[in-house]
Design goal:
This protein has twelve helices and 14 strands. It has 315 residues and is α/β, with parallel strands linked by helices. A seven-stranded parallel sheet has the order 3-2-1-4-5-6-11, with helices on both faces. Strands 12-9-14 form a three-stranded mixed sheet. Strands 7-10 form a two-stranded parallel ribbon.
Length: 315
């Protein structure tokens, strides 16, 4: 690829893995960052350019996308103090980015990293805002092309959201929602980044796609706990958490969040997401179009993640 790829959200969990994957593929990048220094591990590579600013600054966004072949939009909110904040980040952020592409008269393909939650926008403000971001992109339909990629739960080295799961399994306990039989798909962050990179290099037809690790039917939490326990080399006992209890905890966390001004990820909407029984990827068109074969199955992926956590003293 001879041109430049712009990236938002480059300093986050997925973003840091993605910039390394793009660099390894020889792709020149322009990253939107809020401050310097950022990403010290890759700044020394001459293929990385930084634009200081955020999604609320039109001038910074125009500098970001000017002359680019593609923009990968990773930035967004997974937790917020109220509904409007979710939409500000996950819908308006997409709208502002598209406006910048139009203002810069850039022939830029837009790749939005969305969430499988967008499939069920009625469940939570987060899910609704992710779906709104997708709708905004499809309505604008940038002429060079566009993709909305719905990722399932993403795990891997450096992820703080799944860390509590691994910590509890290490202690021999695995809390699961209800009976623990709801099913979900997963993907290791390295495999997600490989898919994103391949999509940039060999873009499929415009549209909304899903991606996962290729396991038909996904997993339930009991199966995941058993695999993680096997990596730790110990037994684990699963504990069903009643929905009413989790809802009560979510209410307390939200009260604390309103008091402190610091958003909490657990909310009534998040509880509805957690107890939703089907987060399994069923659309495999993208994997087929890219001839994508995941590097990590669940056991290898968990082993890689646990090893990183242990080496970095997170566990």
């Amino acid at each position: 690829m001879s041109g430049v790829v712009a990236v938002t959200g480059a300093t986050g969990f997925i973003g840091q893995h993605l910039t390394a994957t793009l660099a390894a593929s020889g792709i020149r990048q322009r990253l939107l960052v809020r401050r310097l220094p950022a990403l010290p591990a890759v700044q020394s590579a001459g293929s990385i350019e930084l634009v200081v600013g955020d999604l609320g600054e039109p001038a910074a966004l125009r500098r970001l996308v000017a002359g680019t072949d593609a923009v990968i939009h990773l930035a967004g909110a997974i937790k917020a103090a109220h509904r409007a904040a979710f939409f500000q980040h996950n819908e308006q952020g997409v709208r502002d980015l598209l406006s910048a592409v139009a203002a810069a008269e850039a022939q830029t393909r837009v790749l939005l990293i969305s969430s499988l939650a967008a499939r069920a926008p009625h469940l939570s403000d987060y899910a609704a805002s992710k779906r709104a971001g997708e709708d905004c992109l499809s309505a604008a339909a940038p002429a060079p092309g566009w993709i909305a990629l719905r990722a399932p739960a993403v795990y891997g080295p450096g992820d703080r959201e799944t860390l509590p799961f691994f910590r509890s399994v290490k202690l021999g306990w695995a809390p699961v929602p209800g009976d623990g039989c709801g099913r979900l798909s997963l993907i290791h962050v390295a495999d997600l980044c490989a898919v994103i990179t391949a999509t940039v290099l060999r873009p499929p037809a415009d549209g909304v796609y899903e991606v996962d690790d290729g396991t038909v039917g996904g997993y339930n939490m009991r199966e995941m706990a058993a695999v993680a326990a096997g990596v730790f080399g110990r037994r684990v006992r699963t504990i069903g958490v009643p929905r009413a209890l989790m809802t009560g905890v979510a209410g307390m966390q939200q009260m604390l969040a309103r008091t402190t001004g610091r958003p909490a990820i657990l909310s009534a909407g998040k509880v509805r997401e957690i107890f939703h029984r089907d987060w399994v990827v069923t659309d495999h068109r993208l994997a087929q179009a890219l001839d994508f074969r995941p590097r990590f199955d669940l056991r290898d992926g968990f082993a890689d993640t646990i090893l990183w956590y242990s080496r970095n003293r997170w566990l």
